[in-house]
Design a protein that fits this description.
Length: about 170
């Protein structure tokens, strides 16, 4: 019976803690200025830490601008590729799914060339495990290993926290 209870408790812990500790952020490009001309997006991006799982939101009056995701050379030249379709909703969410350099520009008129409406960012990989605050017992280390494998890339800090908590709890209830 104890085993049953502790398994239920561990499951509840997992469900309760993992989503709450997810660290994904949402960046409103340009903050209050939004996506527009005459704004320094390089200055805006400077010092910000973009990570896989975060979201960029381009906000602008629908029809006034658009958003193309481009490569580095198109970015330099301010030319959106003719075969790609821009985002045009005025509230465009882009999930940063992979690490690396990402380039965006507005394809309306000369907003990119003259208006400087272009953004380049570097997306970092998701945060990997940092040292857990509790000294791990051999058992909780194996729990950590288990959880990082099974929960896979779900941010490993919460996974480790959950594993430590779960380990403590199981030890107590057994
Ligand atoms: Cu524009």
């Amino acid at each position: 019976m104890a085993r049953c209870h502790s398994l239920v408790a561990v499951s509840i812990l997992l469900v309760a803690l993992v989503p709450a500790t997810s660290m994904a952020k949402e960046f409103i490009v340009g903050d209050d200025a939004g996506w527009t001309i005459g704004f320094n997006y390089q200055a805006w991006a400077q010092g910000k830490e973009f990570r896989v799982g975060d979201t960029l939101v381009f906000k602008y009056p629908e029809g006034a601008h658009n958003v193309y995701k481009v490569n580095g050379s198109d970015f330099q030249a301010c030319t959106p590729p003719s075969d790609s379709i821009p985002l045009t909703s005025g509230n465009d969410h882009i999930l940063l799914a992979t690490a690396g350099r990402k380039w965006y520009l507005c394809g309306v008129g000369e907003h990119c060339e003259i208006g400087g409406q272009k953004l380049v960012i570097t997306v970092q990989p998701q945060l990997q495990s940092e040292a857990p605050s509790l000294a791990p017992s051999p058992w909780s280390q194996s729990m950590n290993a288990y959880y990082s494998n099974s929960v896979e890339k779900m941010s490993s800090i919460p996974a480790m926290a959950v594993a430590s908590l779960a380990a403590t709890l199981v030890t107590l209830t057994f």
